[in-house]
Structure formats: C-alpha cells, structure tokens
Design a protein that fits this description.
4 helices; mainly alpha; 0% strand; 99 residues
Length: 99
C-alpha cells in the first residue's frame, strides 16, 4: 500500500517538474550570464561599458544576456556554438587590448 502511494505521488509529480523545467532553464541561463561577468573584471567592465543601458552600474538579467550573447559571438571563432578556454582567453585579451 505504501509503495503504491509513493509511486502514484512520484508519477503525478513528474509532469509538474516537466512543466517547470523550461522556466528554470531560462533562469539558469540568466544566472550563468550574470555569473560570467561577476567572475571576470575585464568582461564586467566591457559589459558595463557597452550593455548597461540604464547606466546604473549593474547588469540587469536582460543586459547580462545581451552581453553574454555578444561575447559568445565574439569569442566563438570556429562557429561550433561553444567557447573553449583558448577562445575565451583570446577574446578576453582582445577586449583588454581594445577597450
């Protein structure tokens, strides 16, 4: 009897988790975009200079996402959709030298 109740509860909870996952995924992307700039002062200064639209010296989630997209397109030199460590370093060096 207890097993049946647990299985029923687990099977009924999975659709709820599936419905929440797209929203959670978008929140994770925004959080990761913000964390990218918080970890690296060069990228943060670059992002604030070009993507802080309201000039409050804070990156809103939308500003961080726009900056992350721009950085990804700049850094992904081979166009495979991923930024390797070497591509990251090269883009960071470019930003540091140019801006």
């Amino acid at each position: 009897m207890i097993r049946f109740v647990l299985l029923t509860a687990a099977s009924s909870a999975s659709p709820l988790l599936a419905q929440q996952s797209p929203a959670l995924a978008s929140v994770n992307v925004i959080t990761e975009a913000r964390a990218l700039f918080e970890r690296d002062w060069v990228l943060m200064n670059w992002a604030l200079k070009f993507y802080d639209a309201d000039r409050n010296i804070l990156l809103s989630p939308s500003e961080a996402q726009m900056a992350a997209n721009a950085f990804r397109s700049m850094a992904d030199t081979n166009g495979d959709g991923r930024v390797t460590r070497d591509e990251y370093r090269a883009a960071r060096t470019f930003i540091l030298a140019r801006y």
